[in-house]
Write a structure and sequence with these properties.
By secondary structure, the chain is α/β, with parallel strands linked by helices. The protein has six helices and 13 strands. α2 crosses α5 and α3 crosses α4.
């Protein structure tokens, strides 16, 4: 089985987020980047297929040279090869088109992507990939078993889960539950040394125009903010609490 795992290069959740250029661009200064958590669950499941079924695992990212340390970490975890599409990930459709082109040329049986990245939370790339390559698709995937050309998957739905059966080729949008958090792999020294020798291929992008553009960013209000009550409207507030909310 030939597996492709899509890896997003995202800010660590502990990083302090700021914006620049009048809040029109993300400020990367001082930000630590990691493998997108939803992608990490997918990568760990791919490693299981490699260990149990002899699958070949390739990881891929759409981005500049600054994303290569994240790909190298994926190689250190156990992926066999890595691909970087040498273009800025401007929007979901552009990313999906670049990935679909690689998939069509590579003959992959299973494509594992996170259901969304934790930076932009678009949640659109896995479904777009499936549409572009005409493959079956399971989103919010929390369980996956492969037997030959047949796949059994479970996905999270409102109030429970749904189990489905399908055939390869298959694209999934994985998330927490695809593997247990305790199963996530931390690269050891041997894996890090081996990763340096594994192939990381850089390919040029196909022509694609962005369908959406980020106009402006805005941070949410700080938690714990308290609105002070002006003495002039205090009587009105007391009246509303007593008569409308029935607070005695």
């Amino acid at each position: 089985m030939n597996i492709l795992v899509c890896i997003s290069h995202v800010p660590d959740t502990t990083s302090k987020i700021n914006f620049a250029d009048n809040d029109t661009t993300f400020d990367t200064n001082g930000v630590q980047f990691v493998i997108n958590p939803n992608d990490e669950f997918g990568l760990t499941r791919a490693m299981w297929f490699k260990e149990k079924q002899g699958a070949k695992v390739t990881v891929i990212n759409v981005g500049g040279a600054e994303t290569e340390p994240t790909l190298r970490k994926a190689l250190a975890i156990g992926a066999d090869t890595a691909i970087r599409v040498n273009t800025v990930a401007t929007d979901g459709f552009t990313v999906a088109k670049q990935l679909a082109d690689v998939i069509n040329k590579g003959g992959y049986d299973l494509v594992i992507a996170g259901r969304e990245s934790i930076d932009y939370n678009g949640g659109m790339v896995p479904g777009m990939i499936a549409g572009l390559i005409n493959a079956n698709f399971v989103n919010n995937c929390i369980s996956l078993e492969i037997d030959g050309n047949n796949a059994t998957a479970a996905r999270e739905i409102d109030g429970g889960k749904e189990t489905v059966s399908t055939i390869l080729p298959l694209v999934i949008g994985g998330q927490k539950g695809l593997v247990e958090e305790s199963d996530l792999k931390i690269p050891n020294m041997r894996g890090i040394m081996m990763a340096r020798k594994k192939p990381l291929t850089v390919i040029e992008p196909i022509e694609s125009a962005a369908e959406t553009t980020s106009v402006k960013f805005e941070k949410p209000a700080e938690k714990g903010a308290v609105t002070l009550v002006n003495a002039d409207n205090l009587d009105e507030l007391v009246n509303l609490l007593h008569n409308e909310a029935k607070v005695i």
